[in-house]
Write the structure tokens for this entry.
Amino acid sequence: GQQLNQSPQSMFIQEGEDVSMNCTSSSIFNTWLWYKQEPGEGPVLLIALYKAGELTSNGRLTAQFGITRKDSFLNISASIPSDVGIYFCAGFPNAGGTSYGKLTFGQGTILTVHP
Amino acid sequence: DTEVTQTPKHLVMGMTNKKSLKCEQHMGHRAMYWYKQKAKKPPELMFVYSYEKLSINESVPSRFSPECPNSSLLNLHLHALQPEDSALYLCASSQDIQFEAFFGQGTRLTVV
């Protein structure tokens, strides 16, 4: 099946620092999504990307859909303690074939923010 | 409103029990999903329903049986589960396949 390689696996940063994480795939994705998940809760959608090259912001968060359609990144500026959680990239593979409709997740980035 | 509601929030069941997980959305979404998630791991896709029809079954054991009674509801029927099936079960919905998916808060299932 489709694989999404997300990095880094974990980050320990100081409050106020910027954060960057990315996701890559060996195959083309039509849609890239970024989620944040806190303990005991479901993933919360942060940003959705639909076009190659698209750059979208949501407050201190910025994400981009790579022009090759095989990667995406998420940046968080001026981190605060409540940014703590697990961040997942996810995507829908290119239409056609047995992977159509399979919303696939990366392995996640565990973010820890020290005050 | 982007709410997906899952019930119950917690469930403990024996290996011989039969139980059901429920998921509801009123956003008019036509795609609904079941995922299984273990601690510190990404969600793993189990089933996808599109326009109330099962479109994807990720080789899930038959002790898990999905059902989509109507466009707003998705159930997951559980029977003869094993302790290793203990996990957070997540439901999600999207306008259609390939659109952003919204998740419920999950059901924490413990099989004893």
Q: What stands out?
A: Chain B has a mean pLDDT of 96. Chain B touches chain A at residues 2, 4, 6, 31, 33, 40-45, 48, 50, 55-56, 58, 90, 92, 94, 97-106, 108 (CB under 8 Å). Residues 25 and 67 of chain B are 15 Å apart (CA to CA). DSSP finds no helices and eleven strands in chain B.
